[in-house]
Design goal:
444 residues, Protein Transport Mog1p, Chain A, 2 domains, Thrombin, subunit H, alpha+beta, elongated
């Protein structure tokens, strides 16, 4: 089983788009409050959708990323103006090719097919999938960004360029923040489609609540909260701001900062545990993990299995083929009353060897995994272990790590476990492995 769910986000928006986000609230407007807020975004929540489109569509642009050698667009996304100087907010994944291959790609903003402007990439926030660019020229209309605390049920309007079909407006509902996310992401009940990434989701009064980022289909989509865009814009418009050179170094530092923050919260001295058979095992180490379980107890097979797995729902988009910043682990208890000890040992060895994992990434992005096998004694348990690392080729000091381990020496009972970490330093990977194995014990 792969530790990663399929990732809807891609940088090639003409094929598929995405990225995450969310926030919280519910709107109750009495007649008096409606009058008090007349003229604001909440008071105008009953405006017809066509009025919202007419008022704010000129602030939204299509972003085309062009491969210089072919002189044709390689991907498209959306963005929106946020200052009188022509600053544009979009998703990092829309313009990631400019970060990784600045000599090969360029970008431009299109207000219409006849009106376009070159874009300069100023800064990125890779962990929240945001980027800020600056257009050489623009029409002069822009959104003013400010933090907002909407109530659940608020009507929102998402603007963007789905499937390169022209500027569209999509109605939806603000449904608060995702439950299992390390940083806040907005649950948006509306249909986002590839090409809408980077566009704004606004109230009827033009307040930006979030930035389009991803879709799970069936009216389930996600937004980046505007607060992260506010912070990025403040940094990139400061008088002493200098664009990081190269931006890849900034991406590396942000990924390592992300892993430092979430691993600090995970690596507790006394982690939560769950009991499977006679083993106590680590389970949901933080609120942003989600855990699932299942078992196999068919009468026609001579063994039984019990599975327990936990993972983060967050990830950090690096390139179209590579995501980072994710943690995942699983346990499998195997027992048998029908097999003899030699048959069980053969079955146990084969099952451990066949455990599958995939972490994505092409050969130009990551090295092959290099693995060390060994034996680890922890408390009353002995583990056979395989510890593997691979290095990110363009992000110095960033690794993916995999630990596979199996308890040995317990007749007709086996326990397999695996820990997957993406986008971590070598030091954090090894400390996480020690913490993880230290959470196991035998209770019989």
């Amino acid at each position: 089983m792969s530790p990663f769910v399929s990732v809807p986000t891609t940088a090639t928006e003409s094929v598929s788009d995405s990225t995450f986000s969310r926030v919280a609230g519910r709107v109750y407007l009495s007649v008096a409050l409606f009058c008090l807020l007349a003229g604001t975004g909440r008071a105008q929540s009953s405006l017809p959708t066509e009025d919202v489109f007419q008022r704010f569509s000129n602030r939204v642009v299509k972003i085309e990323v062009e491969e210089k050698g072919s002189a044709a667009k390689s991907s498209i996304g959306s963005g929106f103006y946020v200052t009188a100087q022509g600053h544009v907010i979009t998703n990092y994944h829309v313009v990631s090719e400019l970060v990784h291959h600045p000599d090969r790609y360029s970008a431009r903003a299109l207000e219409s097919e006849e009106d376009s402007s070159p874009l300069q990439l100023l800064d990125v926030d890779v962990t929240h999938d945001l980027a800020v660019l600056k257009a050489e020229s623009f029409s002069g209309s822009f959104f003013s960004l400010a933090p907002i605390d909407p109530l659940q049920g608020l009507r929102l309007y998402s603007l963007g360029h789905p499937l390169d079909l022209g500027l569209n407006i999509v109605e939806g509902t603000y449904n608060g923040f995702l439950q299992h996310a390390f940083d806040k992401r907005i649950n948006f009940s509306g249909s986002l489609n590839p090409g809408m990434s980077g566009g704004p989701a606004i109230t009827a009064g033009g307040e930006v609540v979030g930035i389009n980022v991803a879709s799970a289909g069936e009216q389930v989509s996600f937004l980046v909260p505007v607060s992260w865009a506010v912070a990025l814009l403040e940094t990139s418009t400061a008088t002493d701001f200098r664009s990081p050179d190269p931006l890849l170094a900034q991406v590396r530092d942000q990924i390592l900062d992300w892993q430092e923050r979430y691993l600090t919260e995970i690596l507790q001295d006394d982690p939560p545990t769950v009991q499977l058979g006679s083993f106590r095992l680590p389970t949901r180490p933080a609120s942003f993990f989600n855990c699932w379980g299942d078992s196999t107890r068919e009468t026609n097979i001579p063994y039984q299995t019990v599975d327990h797995q936990c993972s983060t729902d967050d990830y950090v988009y690096v390139t179209q083929e590579l995501v980072s910043g994710k943690a995942w682990f699983y346990h499998r208890l195997l027992t048998s009353r029908e097999l003899n000890r030699f048959q069980f040992a053969t079955f146990y060895t084969q099952d451990f060897a066949e455990t599958y994992y995939s972490m994505g990434g092409g050969e130009d992005e990551v090295t092959p995994f290099r693995c060390n096998t060994g034996t680890v004694r922890q408390s009353s348990l002995t583990f056979k272990t395989v510890f593997c690392l691979r290095r990110y080729r363009r992000l110095e000091g960033v690794y993916d790590a995999v630990l596979k381990a199996a308890v040995v020496g317990k007749p007709l009972t086996g326990l397999e476990t695996a820990l997957f970490l993406s986008g971590v330093s070598y030091e954090r990977a090894t400390s996480a492995v020690r913490w993880y194995l230290g959470a196991f014990s035998w209770v019989e």
